[in-house]
Write a structure and sequence with these properties.
The protein is α+β, with helices and mostly antiparallel strands. It has a single domain, classed as Roll (BH3618-like), CATH 2.30.290.10. Helices cover 12% and strands 28% of the residues. The protein has 2 helices and 13 strands, in the order βββββββαβββββαβ. The strands form 3 sheets. Strands 3, 4, 5, 6, 8, 9, 10, 11 and 12 form a 9-stranded antiparallel sheet that branches. Strands 1-2 form a two-stranded antiparallel ribbon. The protein has a two-stranded parallel ribbon with strand order 7-13. A hairpin with an 8-residue loop joins strand 4 and strand 5. About 5% of the residues have low confidence.
């Protein structure tokens, strides 16, 4: 399937790259199909591109990149809605807000995106824990992580580096260790 997007021009999306969100995303409940897009830059930020509305794309990032102690606790009902038999079959993302001043970038830790990698089903889960916020300032942690990666990458040759493609095949993603059952 080919889709023209506002941000990425035309994308060719195969069935294994489509993520179904039966309930949509908070504020975008009518948009049910997305794909993850890697813009092939060095920020580690991916984009969750709507396949139903070309102008809608959310910047997302795995929270363990900037907050290593972040764990999502899912109830039995949430596991059922995600069609998860095994928690290790999922990956977690947080939606970012990136203002003009990128040093004020925030991550929504209160309502992460959990994706069942096997069935390609996603859900935005509102966590009950009060320790998480909707606007976690995270630029400093991300910058530190990127600096570490850049230093490591300099020690490898160009041929060892892995090229990325647009969009991402869900079956190639590594399951998250950030999800626990309540």
């Amino acid at each position: 399937m080919k889709i023209k997007t506002t941000r990425f021009e035309e994308l060719e999306v195969s069935p294994e790259e489509i993520i179904a969100f039966p309930d949509g995303i908070l504020g975008f409940t009518d948009l049910k199909r997305y794909c993850l897009v890697d813009p092939a830059d060095e920020t580690l930020i991916l984009w969750m591109q709507s396949l139903d509305e070309p102008g809608v794309a959310f910047p997302v990032l795995e929270p363990r990149i900037f907050k290593s102690d972040y764990i999502v606790k899912l109830s039995a009902q949430e596991l059922k809605l995600l069609c998860l038999e095994n928690i290790n079959q999922s990956i977690v993302f947080t939606i970012l807000t990136i203002p003009r001043d990128v040093t004020q970038m925030t991550a929504n830790l209160k309502a992460p995106i959990v994706i069942n990698l096997r069935d390609q089903v996603g859900r935005q889960v509102v966590l009950q824990e009060n320790e998480f916020t909707l606007k976690h300032l995270m630029f400093k942690e991300l910058k530190t992580h990127l600096t570490t990666i850049a230093a490591t990458a300099k020690t490898r040759s160009e041929t060892e580096r892995k090229a990325t493609s647009l969009p991402i095949n869900l079956r190639s993603m590594v399951p998250s260790s950030q999800v626990k059952t309540l």
